[in-house]
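Issue 218. Parser rejects a valid record. Input:
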Amino acid sequence: MGKLSKSLLLSMLTIFVMACGGGGQSADAGLDAALDAGLDAGGEDAGGDGGLISLANYCQSLTEAYCEFLQRCPVPGQALDPLADCLEGSRGWCADALLVDMEALGWIAYSPAQADACLAEMALLDCRDFDHAGRDLNGQTACGQVLASLQADQSPCVSGFECLSGVCRFSDLCPGTCAPVVGLDADCSGGQVCADGSLCWQGVCMALPGNPGDACPEGFCAWPLLCRMSGSDNSSWRCAELGLTGEVCGPDARVCFPGLFCKQEQSDGPGLCAVPGQEGAVCQDSSECYDPAGPVLLCSGGTCLPAPAAGEPCEEYSCDQAWCDTQAITPTCVALAQQGQNCSQDSRCLPELFCRDELCQPRLQVGENCALHNWGCVRGLICRAERCVSIGGAVCEPEE
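Output the parser choked on:
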């Protein structure tokens, strides 16, 4: 049975907190974080034992357990959504009917006993046992044994998580076909998917540096490492771990988790990852100011204050709910464009719009063509096989 490498908790983190990229897989590979959670080698007890959770209810139950976990253990430096908002925002990736259809076709196997054990683990999980920075502190868990992929290469597929390889290739017809991943130094110029730990770079599968301190001249590292300037003189690019609150950070140490900053006594020395101040907090640098649920903040006169609004001169080339026009004689904040107004890039449009054909237009809905606009789908959808689909959904329906 197929085994996919990402753990449940890292996958859920990817869905709810970060759009992180991992080991070189593309969206078309079908390694969607939501349904990747639990796809592993443990497909025993695939029947529907009485009293155990059914496959039709598993995804929603897992979502509820994870949202409840986030209430107990919020992500450092990130806004904490109310439980109801977390549940509402996660509905798009639960493809319960799709999972049931795939099990009936023999494409995946489901263990209700492991599903119950998984939910019990989530309810008892201690905050200290879950590392939001992506380092796997949990090892093998029941959540990694709930679902198993069964489709071999050349078998039909509709998403990818049903394939032993994790890769579903689509042409002009549905369904797609399970395809193997390709190894290091192999040709990937035709859309082939490189194996975990590698990346398609200039048409060839390139090994990603995977250890802290490894050189990363191309700008990529294996997840959960990040490539950043290193050394006291920022003379080289090297991989670094993500740091949580209180962990050592600096030029030759960890990079702080998004939403945190590195509080240093000296700019070229080590520091500790800390939560930034919100509006009104004392500061020395704008990196010390951040409100995940409020306006863009800058350090002005030693205090965290909102960045300039539309029509005001830019400060540090930053604006709140606007963009900085650096071509003006005095760089000035410009209001985000509304639907139908001219644009040059997505960031010039209101959040619910994107830039297409030099005009701000509504983001794409389910089924619309996103071949030229991979990031043009509405929130909750991704672009797969040139169509906007739900995160937990499929490009087409599985058939006998």
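Fixed in the parser; the record now loads. The chain has six helices and 22 strands.
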